[in-house]
């Protein structure tokens, strides 16, 4: 039986189911603590597998495109925060204070890895450069995101002793497992490549676990009483506007700077996307537990919108004549 075209993908459905589950049966007490430990372990395993999957050959092949990587990093950690700063009055006016902060947090995050590479491949872009650029963005974000959050989001908004402590915590949870995976890549890389579906399952399962625990804490604090339907619609519009601006600038900028069509595709998909796999665990470290659910709601919505929009763009790129 053919899947109805209007039906979202399985991960989106699972995400909606987890949000519904957290709304009806939020975790509390000992159960919340147990799930928190479980999600930390799942995220560490996820980043270990990412490190083991990334081959040295891809890194070397991608590093030669330094102009492309600098432009992608400028869009990810420069353009997005500047747009967040410019749109901050609009976010503050149209959204609740927590969601407005969540939109600013979204602007500080690194790019996605899997989906950026997948869309680049679908659009017949420079895949080797996409692998290197997206991976570099994810690693650099460990250091840059907490610093930009402390500047852009809210003074004193980083919990647990400031941006430096946040960097250390994020390095412990994300960078160390990734580095361990890279060190063991010659021995375990082939196994991870052969079981790519397992990596995807760990990726999605860890995100679902964190979303469940974060939304549980937020529901206990009265999340849905703070987000009425009109505000949810305003949040969706804000995400669409932000993505449209970035897609236009990344496309226009790459053409103005004389990049090839293949490199333009890589710049568009690596420079316009924000990572849920990195953003959700970072939010856990950077913000107080009851606030995390509100902080990641803009990221969840932006993530789904970028997947749907970029899928259409990738198909159009892929249909171009050689």
From TrEMBL:
Keyword Transmembrane helix: yes
Annotated keywords: Membrane, Transmembrane, Transmembrane helix
GO CC field: plasma membrane
Domain of life the protein comes from: Bacteria
UniProt keyword annotation of Membrane present: yes
Coiled-coil spans in chain: none
Transmembrane segments: 7-25, 31-48, 68-87, 99-120, 127-154, 205-225, 231-252, 282-302
Alphabetized Pfam families for the sequence: SBF_like
Name of protein: Bile acid:sodium symporter
Record organism: Rhodoferax aquaticus
């Amino acid at each position: 039986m053919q899947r109805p075209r209007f039906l979202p993908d399985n991960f989106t459905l699972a995400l909606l189911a987890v949000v519904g589950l957290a709304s009806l049966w939020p975790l509390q007490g000992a159960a919340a603590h147990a799930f928190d430990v479980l999600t930390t372990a799942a995220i560490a395993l996820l980043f270990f597998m990412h490190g083991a999957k990334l081959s040295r050959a891809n890194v070397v092949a991608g590093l030669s495109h330094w102009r492309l990587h600098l432009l992608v990093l400028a869009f990810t950690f420069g353009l997005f925060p500047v747009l967040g700063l410019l749109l901050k009055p609009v976010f503050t006016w149209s959204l609740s204070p927590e969601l407005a902060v969540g939109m600013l947090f979204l602007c500080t995050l690194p790019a996605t890895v899997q989906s950026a590479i997948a869309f680049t491949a679908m659009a017949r872009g420079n895949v080797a450069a996409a692998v290197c650029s997206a991976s570099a963005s994810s690693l650099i974000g460990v250091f840059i995101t907490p610093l930009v959050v402390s500047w852009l989001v809210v003074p004193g908004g980083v919990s647990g002793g400031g941006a430096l402590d946040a960097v250390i915590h994020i390095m412990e949870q994300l960078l160390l497992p990734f580095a361990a995976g890279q060190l063991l890549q010659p021995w375990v890389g082939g196994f991870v490549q052969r079981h790519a579906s397992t990596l995807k399952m760990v990726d999605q399962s860890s995100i679902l676990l964190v979303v469940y625990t974060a939304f549980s804490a937020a529901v206990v604090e009265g999340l849905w009483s703070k987000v009425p339907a009109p505000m949810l619609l305003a949040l969706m519009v804000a995400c669409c506007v932000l993505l449209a601006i970035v897609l236009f600038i990344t496309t226009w900028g790459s053409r103005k700077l004389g990049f090839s069509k293949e490199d333009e595709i890589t710049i568009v998909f690596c420079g316009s996307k924000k990572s849920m796999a990195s953003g959700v665990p970072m939010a856990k470290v950077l913000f107080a537990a009851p606030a995390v659910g509100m902080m990641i709601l803009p990221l969840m919505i932006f993530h789904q919108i970028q997947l749907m929009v970029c899928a259409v763009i990738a198909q159009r790129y892929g249909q171009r004549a050689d």
